[in-house]
Structures are given as C-alpha cells and as structure tokens.
Amino acid sequence: MTLTIAGNETGTPRSPWSGSAGAEELTRWKTAARQAAGGLATDALARDRANQDPYREVELLRRHGLVNLLVPREYGGEGAHWESALHVVRILAAADGSIAQLVAYHYINQATIAFYAAPARQADWFRRSAEGQWVWGGSVNPVDPTLELSVDGDGYRLNGLKRFSTGSSVGDVIIVNAAVTDGPHEGTVLAFVLERGREGLELLGDWDHLGQRLSASGSVRYNNVRVDAADILGEVGDEPFSTLVTPGIQLAFGNFYLGVAQGALAKGREILLGRKNAWILSSAESYAKDPVFQRTVGEFASRIAAVEALADVLNRRYDDAVAKGAGLTFEDRAELAVRTAELKVVSTEVGVEVANRIFEVTGSSSTSNQVGLDLFWRNIRTHSLHDPVDYKKIEVGASYLLGEVQPITLYT
C-alpha cells in the first residue's frame, strides 16, 4: 500500500493558521466560553456524581460554536486562533474540569489534520469535520503500546486495547496512533481516524477514577478493525511542525490547571463571603474581614495572577509557532517546549495547592458533599498525574544549565 506522508510535498504551506487573535475575536470566544461555562456550572456536581457519558455537554459545546473554533473559515469553520481556543479551555475548567479536558483534547486531536495529513488532503478532512461538527476523541496513549496494526491487502487490521482514550465514548471520530507490525512500513507509527461506530471498535466505558469523571476517558478495544488508506492522516514522526502536538496539549494542560485554580478560588470566595460572624479568637467582624483569611486568599490570587500572565504570553506564542508551518525549526520547537514546561510546573503546583488549601478559608462546613468544593481538587489531582511534573522540572533545569533538549516524544 502506498502512503502519502504529510510534509512530503514541496513548496506547499503546511499550516492552515496564520496571524494572531485580535481583541474582537478574543472577546467573542471568551464570551461564548463563559456562556457555556455558566450552563455547565449549574449542575456540575450532580453530573459528576451521575458519571454518565457527556453527550448533553457536547451538544452544549456545539450550540456555542466551540467545536469548530479552530477550523479555518474556508473549510466551514470559525477561523479562530489557538489563543482563543486555550482561553476557552481555561474558562470551562473553572466550571467543569472534565469538559475542559474534553475540549482541550478535541482541539489538539482535530488539529492533527494539519500536523499529520498531507497538505492536499487537509481541506477534505477539515470540511467533513466542520460540516459534521465532529468532536474528536483520541486513542494515542504512548505508554500503553498494546495495539497491533498489521497489513491486510491494501489496508490494515487493528487489534488490541488502548486505555485513557479521552473523548472516545462521545467523539464522532477517534484518532489512533499505532505502529505497523509487518510489511514494508514495519515500525512506522501511523495516525489514522476511525468513526466511533466502526465495526470491531468496542468502547469499554471503564473510567472509574477520583476525578475527571465526565472526560469520556475509558478504554477502547479494537477487534480486527479495518483501517483503509483513506483513514490514514499520515506518519507520526519528528519533523518540527508536526511535533507541535506535544507543546500544544501541554499548553492546554497549563490553561486547564489555571482554570481549575481560578474556579476553586472563586468558589472559595463565595463561601467565605457567606460565612457569618468570625473565629472566636478573632477581633474581626467576619471571616472575610479577618487578616488571616485575607492573607491566604491574597496569596492564592497573586500566584494565580502570575501563572495567568505566563499562560497569556505562551498562548499567543503558540500561534506564532504554528503559523511558521514547515518553516518551524528544531530550535524554535525546543524553545517553545521548555517555556511550556515552565508553565506546566507552576500551573500544576498552584492549581493543586489552591484546590487543596481553599478549605482553610472556607471551614469544615465546606467539606459537606452538598457543597462539592472537593470537585476542583479531585479533578486537578487526577489529571495533574498525566505525566510526572518532576520530569518537566528536569526538562527546564537541563535546558537552563546545559542547553540540553529532551528527545521529542508525545510528552516532551
């Protein structure tokens, strides 16, 4: 079987994105995200407890135009930039971490059209995705390499199990990464797209974790699933532009964790302002007027503001990087990856700490299951373990001290 690998063509622009988001665009999508977040916030705790696949939530995202946000206008999409998309992730995370994760993965999975597909094929993929308002799930977890992609005539057959397949149970399509196990392309890792109802594709619905319960992150089993040439986006290689997948998703994580911290602090402020009287040893009129609690809230707000400032810089810088397309160098990519790792470090630590210590200012009554303040902590504690933050610290330190660059992977 002959494959067309993305980037083999010469003289063809690789990236469908250019420029950066203006004030009007940012305002539009922040407003849409806040409206969607408002709808999610009304029953976030009840939906988390019900632990059902988020089909209604996906329809909410469609109604607000968020699904096609990054698809270029010429292909039927909204033509927005990554800075806008990352703000959407952040805003949704303050209301519902599960749906923020679902959206973040959708954006990066959908963007693999540009990162992996040959330029001549991108238009068709984008058009079909836009017309169908496809939500993109992913089955690419690289530390779970149990898939076998074997040659079958002019196509392949896929077998095996892939865990942590975020969005797969509600996605219209699922992007899969698998290495070819035989034939002339043996060892080549291919990215391909399967519709959720493809024969032999089994959704196990086995996500049973502390948090992120509505992220649709269960396992997928592939039982002799047919993969045709038309399903294949391209090869997963180490060409700089195509590997922007990793800084992109890590940047989305940073915005996600920031949003959770903002949401936890906002909920804590609401609870604190509602507390009557003050601690028995305090001379303040109320808890909110007590310097002890003001100090803690001030610390949280200040650290969140610092993370936000870094995230805002990097969100725009990512647009600059993707706009370079085939002109992106390894040096460009490495510099962006290290800066994104810096964000991952501080957003993780601030997010986990705020979501944990917010209880110090809200009191024992806020631990009631009816309050649901724990939802923020459960969500960020669960997802922040996606990849060890200590290795991000090492990545930053090795770069700072020695100028060393980590090998390109789906984590670095």
TrEMBL record:
InterPro entries: Acyl-CoA_DH_C, Acyl-CoA_Oxase/DH_mid-dom_sf, AcylCo_DH-like_C, AcylCoA_DH/ox_N, AcylCoA_DH/ox_N_sf, AcylCoA_DH/oxidase_NM_dom_sf. Residues 1-23 are annotated as: Disordered. It comes from the Bacteria. Keywords: Oxidoreductase. SUPFAM superfamilies: Acyl-CoA dehydrogenase C-terminal domain-like, Acyl-CoA dehydrogenase NM domain-like. Residues 30-132 form the Acyl-CoA dehydrogenase/oxidase N-terminal domain. Residues 252-387 form the Acyl-CoA dehydrogenase C-terminal domain. Gene3D superfamilies: Acyl-CoA dehydrogenase/oxidase, N-terminal domain, Butyryl-CoA Dehydrogenase, subunit A, domain 2, Butyryl-CoA Dehydrogenase, subunit A, domain 3. Residues 1-18 have a biased composition (Polar residues). This is Acyl-CoA dehydrogenase. The lineage of its organism: Bacteria, Bacillati, Actinomycetota, Actinomycetes, Micrococcales.
